[in-house]
Fold this sequence. Notes:
This protein is α+β, with helices and mostly antiparallel strands and 285 residues long.
Amino acid sequence: MPNRPSRPSRPPPADDDGVDHGQRAVQSVEVGGRLLLALAAHRGPMNLKDLAQEAGMTAARAHPYLVSFGRLRLVEQDRPSGRYALGPAALQMGLTALHQQDAVRTAETMAEALAQRTGHAVAVAVWGNFGPTVVRMIEARQPLLISMRAGTVMSLLHTATGRAFAAALPHDRLLQALSGHTRAVGDPPGRSTRPGPNDWAIVEAARKDVRLQGVVRAKGRPIPGVNAFSSPCFNHLGEPAVVITMLDRQEQLTVDWASASARALRDAARDLSTRLGWAGAPADA
């Protein structure tokens, strides 16, 4: 999954955030907010010239905003270097936002919109006590006769949903999951509880797909005639908070990486990851 863009030249539009963008706004707040967004997108402190340039304004115009933000402790200035960074109040706001963010609720809202827009079935899964567990299933426009519903535990290695988790889990948790594996939907008969070379090859392939494509895919397996794309959504620690899966009949959902459906899922997963505080590579990637 690609990194978040490093230069927000303007505040991102909030089309689905519940804000009425036709209401009266305070322009100076939006202008000053670009400085905070630029600092948030940057890995380290910034000098005034670069910060102002990232925010699309002159240094002379940016400085009074930074003074005010400093009084509110939203911004700090390192006196020896003169560089600016986000301050303790900004950190507290970020932590509060993370605590208020409900990953599953937000994922379900995005999944509903994704299903309505594409016509495909969309599922939301979390990592449960027995592995990848579906918590919400939204039917396709043409319902699929499959046994995937809320509460279903999916195979870690033999479903797109499971492989999306396998691609994103930290190594120690993945090893524990593979070693203590219980039978799940999609597992082949006689599945061993000890991970072997073939299991790790599946994991590495899934990691490569997520790294290069942002999604993993399944073509007619384990459900004959049904294709799927799955994408992990990361929290602020770089761990998979949820996995969103899109599935439909083969004639309705092509497994082309560049398809509109794959792009729609990638965009939704990236958006959710950003909302959950993710700003880089997943853990142990």
